[in-house]
Amino acid sequence: MRECRGRQDAGSGPSPDFISMLALVFRAGSAELAVAARHIIEVLPRMPLREPSLAPPAVVGLLPFRGTLTPVVDLCQLICGRPAAPQLGTRIIVVQIGEGAQRRLVGLMAEDVSELVDSGHTARGLHLPEHAWLGDHLSLESGLPQLVEPSELMPQALLALFVAAESSA
């Protein structure tokens, strides 16, 4: 993960406290979103998954990944109520969520996973308490993708399933 601090040059450029980071841009339905690269473990192509028994609709499967079964959540299903389109740009973004004993890998299936961009400046959007996972917009990118916080993205009931699965394994 690359993180850099800007420097002040003769009255132009970013302020000394400007922090630039990389972010991966993707879609969930019509929403253009991004996740900071610091959360990403790996990006994988869409692939067959082990079907979970009696899981909520957004949990589309279990991914054998680095010696564990990693749950995969379809962001289109979670956010829009429809499954992700089976197209070339649909990918599984493996992220780390939680802290300490609650830390867990989760796959996020998203559409049009396109590029890693330097986030540049961000602009505040609307603060929606019921959608605390939505962050600032990447103001230098076309479409103004909105940053998401993976740990806040899923409902607590869904997160509890992942933590319980990890601790009982």
List the keywords:
single chain, 169 residues, mainly beta, OB fold (Dihydrolipoamide Acetyltransferase, E2P), 3 helices, globular
Write up this protein.
Strands 1, 2, 3, 4, 5, 6, 7, 8, 9, 10 and 11 form an 11-stranded mixed sheet that branches. 14% of the residues lie in helices and 42% in strands. The longest helix has 13 residues. It is mainly beta. Strand 5 and strand 6 form a beta hairpin. The N terminus is likely disordered. The two termini are 30 Å apart. It is built from 3 helices and 11 strands, in the order ββββββαβββββαα. The chain has one domain: CheA-289, Domain 4 (OB fold (Dihydrolipoamide Acetyltransferase, E2P), Beta Barrel).
Give the biggest sheet: 11 strands, mixed
Flag low-confidence runs: 1-18
Q: Into which percentage range does the β-strand content fall?
A: 35-45%
Average predicted local confidence, pLDDT: 76
CATH class: Mainly Beta
What is the H-and-E element order?
EEEEEEHEEEEEHH
**Overall tally of domains:** 1
What is the overall shape? globular
Output the structural class: mainly beta
Q: Write the CATH homologous superfamily.
A: CheA-289, Domain 4
Find the CATH topology: OB fold (Dihydrolipoamide Acetyltransferase, E2P)
Q: Please report the total strand number as a whole number.
A: 11
Report how far apart the termini are. Answer: 30 Å
What's the alpha carbon Rg, rounded to whole Å?
Answer: 17 Å
Number of helices: 3
Residues in helix, %:
10-25%
Name of the CATH architecture: Beta Barrel
